[in-house]
Structures are given as structure tokens and as C-alpha cells.
Amino acid sequence: MSRGKTTLIDRVGTKVSALILTYFSDSQRFLILCVCVGCLCGVVAVLFHVSIHGLFHYLWGNVNNSGKYWYLWMILMPAIGGFLVGLIIHFLAPAAAGSGIPQTKAAFYNQFGRIRLRQGITRFVVCTLSVGTGSSLGREGPTVHICASIASWMGRTFGLAQSRVQAMVPVGVGAGVAAAFNTPLSAITFVFEELLGDFNSKALGGILLSVVIAAALSRALLGENPAFTVEAYDFVSYEWIFISPIVGVLAGFLGVAFCKLLLYSREKIRESKVPAFIRPAIAGLLVGLIGTLVYKLSGKQHHGVFSIGYHDLSTMLSGNLVLSFACLLFLGKFIASLLSYSGGASGGLFGPVLFMGGMLGGMVGLTGSFFFNWSSSEVGAIALLGMGGMFAAVIRCPITSILIMFEMTLNYEIILPLMVGNMIAYYISNRLFPISIYDALLLQDKINLRKLPGYQGAQDWRSLPVSTIATYDVSFFTDHWTVQECIEKSSNEPKHAYPIRNINRELIGIITRHELLEVGPEHRNESIGVLFDFKNRKLIKVTPEKSIREAARVLVVEDVMQMPIVQAKNPARMIGIITLHDIARQQNAIEEQLDSNPQ
User: Fold this and answer.
1) Which CATH number applies to 460-596: 3.40.50.12280, 3.10.580.10, 3.40.50.1110, 3.30.70.330?
2) pLDDT of residue 280
3) Mean pLDDT across the chain, nearest whole number?
4) Residue 346, beta-bridge partner list
5) Fold of 237-444
């Protein structure tokens, strides 16, 4: 029965696609679909927002009506949700874990923007269940993934060329951010800063269309009011020059701490022997304990550790939160967000980062009010500085961090202090943690984004440096390891060849897996450094600035499959590897793009 339905839908889709292909060119179809994506993503984003808030408030209402056992329900609510989420993610939808932005970036760069609609649907369901039951994450990142999957599906369904399908992903991302935050300007800058990496794109017109439509629909369905309200305050120069750097420095260092702890805890939880489908439940139980403790200590007034927590954040932005409660909420959200994301729940980082930033800025404002008698509106304005600084430090999109604060509050007076604080936070974060959090998460998952500059012609890509398509996530062997140890370690993730380093971490050679397997049992307990004598073996190397064309020539002439990329000033220091497979894959991708979009 289900197979018959699927076949019928496919047939209808094929007929509609054929009709559109007949009457419209590729460029026309792209713009029409951008309008459709804006409409559909706007509605879906609103439904997603309503679903999460509806589920959470329904469950919270039941907790308040549960009498003397209220604390038990508060603790168990995210644990039960985590258990269900863990089962769904582990057995049905692995791509629904995390925030969705890393998955979107990986699909955009590595798969020509192909994202299955099923991923968006499962993300909608799983994230609603996860955040709606109290997981300490946000809805904005998942909204991006959902809308990107819609855009990609529409592009493929209605016959766009492959390059146009890839261009549909930024269109969906922009629509998702615009609808989730009700912020069209920052949605555009986020697409360029986070996804595209620069402000050059032929899809700008389509992005603008989808963003405007999605934001308009969001405002029509949810209201014209901004996400947060901060009273206008005229910042006097000597005050904001003193305040902004303090908030920026604190946000920078705490943002780096959050990123590093997130990656560390995520790695440690993955290495644990706890089954993957149980981890979200355990994380949910710990979040329940932390959230309940904070709620109890705050006099049963503040439950912002659970779910998105924007109600308590709005209270902080109005300056009506006491210092002890702000400290409790910041610490609770910091730990709970680390646990939720590292434990494998489904949800984004935007919400927790903004929440922590607001509490951080609020703590600075409330502390200063003891000495300078600041009003509640001034404390709220400083909390807004903290939101912007934390966003710039963690998400690493400085222009977006300024615009999004302005659009979410419609408070122009805060722009100049925001610029100062955000740039300081961004600078500190960038110096101490050079890789953005989403790229770092991808690298931790052993995914390297295949980013290429703008395409300029059939021969253009071969003149690019090898660093453009190189692999930087490389598995090394050490020369004192035995052959048996190398075989065992390579069995988990078999590759054609492995670089060899000495005790000083200097590159001394390369060995293939085939060579290791050819060693007889009687010699497998000998070290590879002694057995293969790398000092007398020729090692073919290349520096990062060499062109792909030159690297391909060397690989063919020397009859090798791979070549280490080393520093020009220190040839013993390896930074990556280039293989014939990398070059062939890129050539196939370029040829597919040419075939699907002829000049």
C-alpha cells in the first residue's frame, strides 16, 4: 500500500517537473522556486516554533499540577524525551542529532547541496520532542537544516541543474534564519558569513527573495513585535567605552571555554561504553536535575535552564532579575547545554549562546549597579551587549552578531557599543580557538569541507593550490609501533596509506596498508621503523601552494597514489595529504556541473 502511494507521488512529481521544464528556463525556475521556498519555509518555521513551545508549555502545565511530586516530573521530563530521541536517532535518523548546521554545511560543500527531505521531516519531529521536553538547546539551528532540506528537495524535484540545486541551500538557510528570529538582514549576512564564507554569490537575488517572504510570513503569523524588548537607552560615551570592552573580554574567554568544553565532552561521551541510544536519556536526566535545582534555588520562579529559556532571558533584558538568580541561570544553562549537545540530543546552539550571553551581560550590569546606581533599562542594555559578544565568540559571525541584536530588539542606541564589544569578543575567540565551532564539530566527525573558490572555467580548478582540496584529517603511525599494532589500528578505518612520524612528530615516510598485510607472522612484532628502513626510502612531498595540476603530474610520474603536504619552511612538518582520489573526485564534480549547466 505504502509503495503504491510513493509511486503515485513520484509520478505526479515527474509530470509537474516535466511541465515546468517545458515552459521555464533554468534561471526562471530558480527564481520561482526561491519564492516558493520563502513561503514554505516561513510556514514550516512558524509551525516548528509553535510545536516546540506548545509541547513544552503543555508538559510544564502538567508539572505545575502534579502536586508534591512536581520535582520528580521536572527531573524525568527531559530524561524521557531523551530516551525517545535516542531511539529515533540511533535506529531511524542519525542525521537528526545535533544542531543541523554542520550537516547543512557538509551537504552543501561535499554533496552539491543534496539534502533529503526525509532529513528535514525527522529533524522537525525529533527536535520538537527533544527541546519540547526540556533539553537545554535551541530551535534556530534545526530550523536552518529543515529549511535547507526543503530548498534542496524542491530544486531536485523541479529539475534544476546540479549547480542550481547547490545554490538552493543558501536560499533555504536564509529563509530559515529569517523566519526563526524574525530578522531578515542578519539572515542574509549569516548565509554569507557562515555558509558561503564570503559576500560573493550569484544566488543573492534568490536569497533576498526567500528571506523577505519568510520573514513577512513569520511576522504575519507570530506578530510584528521583535523577539526581545529592550528599553531605548542613550549610551554616554565614557560609559559604553568602559562597559563594552569588559563585556567583550568576558564573552570572548567564556565563549572559547564553551567551545572547547563542548568538543571535549562530546569526544569523551563518544568514547564511553554507554550505548549511543541511551546517552540522550542520561544527559536529559542530568539536565533535569540541574534545571530542577536552579528552579528550586530561584524560589520556583525561573525555569530557563529547560528548553529554550527565552522567558527568563526577556526578564534579564528588562533588568528585573537579581544577581544571584542570573548567576544560577548562567551556570545551569552552561552545563546543561554542554550535556544536552554532547549527549546526542537534537537542538541548536543559537538559543543557549544567546541565553548565556544575556545572563553574562546582566551579571556585569547588576554588579555595576551596586556602584553606579544603573537603572533597570541600563542593566538590560548591558545584557544585550553580552548576548552579542557571546554570539560573536561562539558562532563566529561578527556582522551577523551585530545586526541580529539590532533586529531582535529594534534598539538602535545599542549599535555602537555592540560593535566595540562584539569585535573584542570575536578577536579573542578567533585568536584562542581559530576554527569556528561548526567546522570544529565536522572535523571531530572526520568530515572535511571541500570548499572551492568561485568557478571561472573548465581549466580554472587545476590552477588552484593543492591546499584547496587536500585532506587535513590524517591518521598517523609512529615508527616505533609494531606491524601488528599498525594493522589493528588501521582495521577500524582502513585507508590506502598512512604517514609515519618519529618520536619528535616529524614526517619520515609513508607506508601502505598492502605493505603491512604482506609482512609474515614471524615479523609482525617488529617495529615498522626498523623493518621498513624509511631513511633509505624516497618520500615524495608537496608544499601547500603548488597547483593541483602540478601535484597530479608528480603523482603520475612517481607512480604513487598519495603525497604528503608539508610546510615550505619545515618539510618535516606534515599539514595534510593529497591523493589521486581527491583530484579525480574534484574533476568529476566539475564535469557534472558543466554537464548539468552548460555555458
Assistant:
1) 3.10.580.10
2) 94
3) 83
4) 98
5) Clc chloride channel (1.10.3080)
